[in-house]
Design brief:
Blueprint lengths: L1 H19 L17 E9 L5 E4 L2 H7 L11 E4 L7 H7 L7 E6 L13 E5 L14 E5 L5 E9 L3 E5 L9 E10 L1
Antiparallel strand pairs: 1-2, 1-3, 1-9, 4-9, 5-8, 6-7, 7-8
């Protein structure tokens, strides 16, 4: 009987001590942007002088005078590491937490590329096949000598000829990129 009383006291003592000791929460891994995660974010991209040239936020586009009524304005959703994104944008997102905001200046090599001199060609308009919206800055695909399609930007439009550029229109530019991470799944 005495041993039963001692066991009962020890059990009560253990229960009492465990109830009084602070609970240590199970270690939880913080969720951050990493390859394979689906991320949702809003962004604004502009030049280092503060001029905005692209955004996912409709109000910001209207305020900056770059609003396009034919374009949807909503957060970007992509699978990080799988869906295409500029290298500088990807580096900015990596490691971000839900609700975090960042603002960074991205060099041309990680944005729209280094400006390559002498990368233009002039073609007669009659050589352009397909239905393209022929406006300066628009992209058309040219079939190169090895039957490879090469995207080129319309640089100039003359009466008979068109000047095309292999550089992106924003090549050589530093980009100020602001992002707000909405969610990570």
């Amino acid at each position: 009987m005495k041993s039963l009383t001692i066991i009962a006291y020890c059990t009560l003592l253990l229960l009492f001590v465990s109830a009084c000791s602070p609970k240590v929460p199970a270690e939880t891994k913080e969720i951050v942007v990493e390859p394979g995660k689906t991320v949702t974010f809003d962004y604004a991209a502009g030049f280092t002088n503060g001029t905005l040239f692209d955004t996912s936020i409709e109000e910001a586009a209207k305020k900056a005078g770059i609003y396009d009524p034919n374009r949807p304005y909503h957060p970007v959703v992509l699978k990080y590491g799988y869906d295409p994104i500029l290298p500088g944008y990807a580096e900015t997102l990596l490691g971000m937490k839900e609700g975090e905001a960042r603002n960074i200046i991205i060099p041309p090599s990680k944005a729209y590329g280094i400006l390559r001199e002498n990368s233009t060609i002039e073609l007669p308009k009659t050589k352009i096949q397909g239905k393209y919206d022929m406006r300066i800055g628009n992209v058309i695909n040219i079939i190169w000598h090895n039957n490879e399609q090469v995207p080129m930007y319309i640089k100039q439009i003359g009466a008979e000829n068109i000047t095309l550029d292999l550089n992106h229109p924003l090549a050589g530019q530093f980009v100020q990129f602001s992002v707000i991470l909405r969610s990570i799944d």
